[in-house]
Write a structure and sequence with these properties.
By secondary structure, the protein is of the alpha+beta class. Helices cover 57% and strands 10% of the residues. The protein folds into two domains: 102 residues, Arc Repressor Mutant, subunit A, CATH 1.10.10; 161 residues, Tetratricopeptide repeat domain (Serine Threonine Protein Phosphatase 5, Tetratricopeptide repeat, Alpha Horseshoe), CATH 1.25.40.10. α4 packs antiparallel against α5, α7 packs antiparallel against α8 and α9 packs antiparallel against α10. The longest helix has 27 residues. Pfam families: BTAD, Trans_reg_C.
Length: 276
Amino acid sequence: MRADSMPAVTVHCLGNFRLEINGVPVAHWRAGKARALFQYLLVNRGRLVHRDRLHEVLWPDSDDRSSSSLKVAVHAVRRVLGTHQKDDGFQLVHRDHGYMLQARSAWVDLEEFERAFQEGREAWSAKDHQRALERFQTAADLYTGDFLAGETGDWINEQRQWAQSVALRALAVLRADSLEREDWPAAMHWCRRVISLDPYHEDTYQTLMMMHGELGELGRVRDWYELCRRRLSNDLDTEPTERTEQLLASLTRRGERSLGPALVGGPALVGAPSPV
């Protein structure tokens, strides 16, 4: 993309939060709640948010809605945005007892991530699976970390869980496609991405065990089983399902023999799940 076509504002919310205005990173927010206010209005960009809701989000333990704290935070955000502001940058608008964040030219990774996934769903419904896979790949690439990693808040946790669920649905389709093409390195990559988001996804551990069994890597089969067992036991106080135990026993018995029938018959490997 040419420099003159770059958006005035770029924001990264997936992983560590970053804001750049006209290529200049914003590092200082002046007031304690200014950044949190900007983040919440960003996720609700183009929508008017009543000031009572902002008080509830930013100061959940306070019942004082008459406090000047919100005005201080708003003033701080406006100073930050005004430092490098242009006509096509962000604007914080006050209207009808609420605030709205507007921007003509802004690139926000969360919005691009959700758009890519939605376009993938639409392409999948239209039977254009190649286009769908391309858009799911884009969504997966954009998901570089949890929403506002390291930050806390009820609304942040809610948005974080939603973004993670979207990423897992895209990854499930990419994994299934790789398995159908018997592209084991790609399938392993997507499996590892799934486990990084959901460390208790037992079907994915089964898939990894079967693929390494196919490659004759029995040590790796055992490693994935042990990791699954340890996480389920230590964190959820449960044990692997009977199918996982049977799979381990079967792969161990077969040793380095061909595991084609196991791969074809394993439910975790059959067909690409619908992302809808």
